[in-house]
Each structure stands twice: as structure tokens, then as C-alpha cells.
Design goal:
Layout (H helix, E strand, L loop, with lengths): L9 H4 L5 E2 L4 E2 L2 E4 L12 E9 L5 E8 L3 H11 L3 E3 L1 E3 L2 E3 L1 E9 L1
Parallel strand pairs: 1-9
Antiparallel strand pairs: 2-7, 3-6, 4-5, 4-9, 7-8
Length: about 110
Amino acid sequence: MMLLATRWWEPACGGRKPYMVGHDITPPRVARRVEPAWPKPHVKGIVIVETVITEAGDVCAARVLKTPSAAMGAAAVRAVTRWRFVPARKGGRAVAVVFDVAVGRR
């Protein structure tokens, strides 16, 4: 018997099968950005957050791919889950996509 790996977003996004951006899938655009409440003002760096953006432009799931610290990663995820997007499109219709965003402080 072969076990299939579950998609990380399934618990939060239900039965969605998001596309990857590229070829005939136009990327989503940020419509409303929420800045993170960074834990320590002197810590700098970039956090890469992988998201699933729904057909409505909401973030239904997010996880950290890269972060300078766990606290910065957690702050970035809290903020990014409140972002709103103009949805990605395939053939003129809105679709759910997996999309990476970078959040940081210099």
C-alpha cells in the first residue's frame, strides 16, 4: 500500500487544489498589506512565507519557508494571513494558487 503525502494546506483550505503560478496562471497582486508587529526592533532580515491564496483573494494557509528567527517567522505569518489579494487568474477566471511572499526589515 502506498501512502500519499498530504498537502500542508488541506486542513486550513479544505478541498482546494491550488495551482502554481506560471505559464497561463497570472500571479495574484497585493490589494491590502498588513505590516508585521516585529518582536525585536534591532533584529533585521527577510522572511519567506508560502501561502495559498483563494479565488476570493484571501490567504487560507501560510507557512514559513525561511526566516532569521522563529519569532520573526511567527510575526510574518500573523501579518500575511491578514493580507488581501487581487486573485490569480487562469483563462480569465479567478483561481486558488500557491504563492510565496517576502516580508522583512532592513
